[in-house]
Amino acid sequence: MVDSHSHIAGREFAGDLAAVVSRARDAGVSRALVILAAEDEEEVRQASRVLELWPECRVAVGVHPHHAHLFADDPAVAAQLVESRLSALPAARAIGEIGLDYHYDFSPRDVQQAVFRVQLRIARERRLPVVIHTRDAEEDTLAILRENGSVDTTGVFHCFSGDSLAAARALATGYHVSIPGIATFPKADALRDAAGTVPDDKLLVETDSPYLTPVPFRGKRNEPAMVAEVVKTLAEVRHTSPEALAALVSANFDRLFAP
Fold first, then answer.
1. Residue 115's closest CA among 98, 131, 97, 92?
2. Is residue 259 scored above 80 in pLDDT?
3. CATH number at residue 63
4. Least CB-packed of 3, 29, 30, 97 within 10 Å?
């Protein structure tokens, strides 16, 4: 079993990281993709400790759309920073999370788009997959992917929470779709229906920890061990066993991120 999107190098896990890793292993989680904010020195340093404790993990590094405003004067600086991080992190396997977020608009939309584009260019040049964050910005996200040649890149729409139509549009890019703990929520019928339509070879699961804690752990901090609840829910939706679903998403993870 794998967790395809986790923030365990963040401050929320600094005090008990070893215990978090131990619980993940005990739950049968063999590895995770750890997401790093390129501009966050502390998080990048903490990634070294994550990898010491859990060498099977791999990392993605990028500039999140919330932080794109830091590079408003020159988006190329964001690209340079991501390039330097990738070169310094042997465990780096992807660029992300990157994309657009019009829900909060913490960064101006034109700046988000510019920073997104320069990071997609790096992905094409380095032949790395991208981890896409999109919220209330699906039209522009898809347009920029098409404009920048999604056929020339691979990647995943992380924390997918849409319906079957939204899943079809995301999958039309050729990218994977990663289902978070939201799928376990009682009112998430549309998401569960969508998860049932994702082709076997395009499905991933994630925690997005420390966020979006699945049922039955609502109210607690999310962590990689809890991805097991997502696997169980999707196994029911897809009429298979948790073991078979775990093997399927693990194989997809390995093909996409080439660990």
1. 98
2. no
3. 3.20.20.140
4. 30
